[in-house]
Amino acid sequence: MGVTVWRHKLSAVFHYRFQVNGKRIQRSTRLRLRAPAEDLAAKEYANALIIANGGQPIPTLREMFDQWTVLRAPVASCHHRRSVDVVRRLHLYDLGDKPLNLLTTETIESARNRHLETHAPSTVNHWLRVIKLVVNWAVAREILPRLPWKVKMMKVQKKPRSIMPMQVVTVWLAEVDAAASNKSMGTAIRMMFGAGLREAEAAGARWEWMDWERGTYTPGETKGREAVPVPLPAWLLEHLAPLRKDSGLIAPRADGNRFGSGFARRVIHIANQKSSVNGITPHRLRGSFATLLLEAGATLRTVQEVMRHKSPLTTMEYIESNMETVVAAQQRIAEKTGMLRRESGAMQQSELSET
């Protein structure tokens, strides 16, 4: 993507070429100096894009963000809208007033480096994803032929994330109930842990989507618009049975309305402190659900389906390694290879010699 400018071998005059809507344009600038030749090529490229866009000027990045907010935000998730809005208001830097076709690798890298001065690399990668999201939307609307830059994500050291310890689940849920302002909050959190629901999906869970005969729940409002039945464990069905209704929210607020965004965070934080559990969040409840399913023998394809992910790579991002299963596997390997018996015998002989 973009304009290529080069000096002709024979005439020493600079030429340029670019593509717009699949059509290649290549001409001479008739100039012998690179800087004015590049300026001319950029103007010709912008004119070609305007013509291809039906005579409309190419919008700036800020205008594209504004259009996305009007047209796409109403059908995007709350988290998605929030991410785009924060970048639009606070982090466009010098990019905001540039037409989309003038966004280059250099300009994006320069803005990224400014963002890196005050933000962690993982946050900078998220910033770049949001910028790409909006400009790729312009590509989809045929305002641009393709993304006008190539900037790689920064390498980030992955930090281990928490998994709900199985031995404290009962105690932890009891602390959730004690900290919750009403019983519905505990029910919603159980839906996150037992069925892998996202926080917003648990808040919007409805009785109409329960299949009591099959023991499944099919989320009717999901991030990816999927409708995949999720089997519910027996303990969760037992919890829901006394609350059973024909319709309505499964876990409503005291006034009957649904909980808002972030409703479970305070309660989960208190339960973590009371039960000495670290790092569990609404999102890590979903990650624990995926990890524990895989460890219990479910295939990655099955976990992907109940997590409602379009790609197994997304599912893998949720799954953490459980060191307890590694230790158990090492124990089985030692038993099969005879190493465990040898080491036990050596320890016994050492103990006898000491006595």
List keywords for this structure.
51% helix, three-stranded antiparallel β-sheet, single chain, 4 domains, 355 residues, 15 helices, DNA polymerase, domain 1, mainly alpha, hpI Integrase, Chain A
Structure, described:
The protein contains 15 helices and six strands. Strand 4 (210-211) and strand 5 form a beta hairpin. It has a three-stranded antiparallel β-sheet, covered by helices on one side. The model has no long low-confidence stretch (mean pLDDT 87). By secondary structure, it is mostly helical. The chain folds into four domains: 4-52; 61-140, Orthogonal Bundle (DNA polymerase, domain 1), CATH 1.10.150; 166-321, Intergrase catalytic core (hpI Integrase, Chain A, Orthogonal Bundle), CATH 1.10.443; 328-354.
Which architecture name of the largest domain does CATH use?
Answer: Orthogonal Bundle
Main β sheet profile: 3 strands, antiparallel
What do we call the CATH homologous superfamily of the largest domain? Intergrase catalytic core
- Strand pairing plus helix content: what structural class? mainly alpha
Overall shape: elongated
How much β-strand is present in the residues? Answer: 5-15%
CATH class of the largest domain: Mainly Alpha
Helix fraction, binned, reads 40-55%
Q: Domain count, please report it.
A: 4
Terminus-to-terminus distance = 79 Å
Radius of gyration: 28 Å
Count of DSSP E strands? 6
Task: Tell me which oligomeric state these chains represent.
Answer: single chain
Which series of helices and strands comes N to C? EEEHHHHHHHHEEEHHHHHHH
- Rounded mean pLDDT is 87
Sequence of strands across the biggest β-sheet: 1-2-3
Unreliable runs, pLDDT <50, ≥5 residues?
none
Here the CATH topology of the largest domain equals: hpI Integrase, Chain A
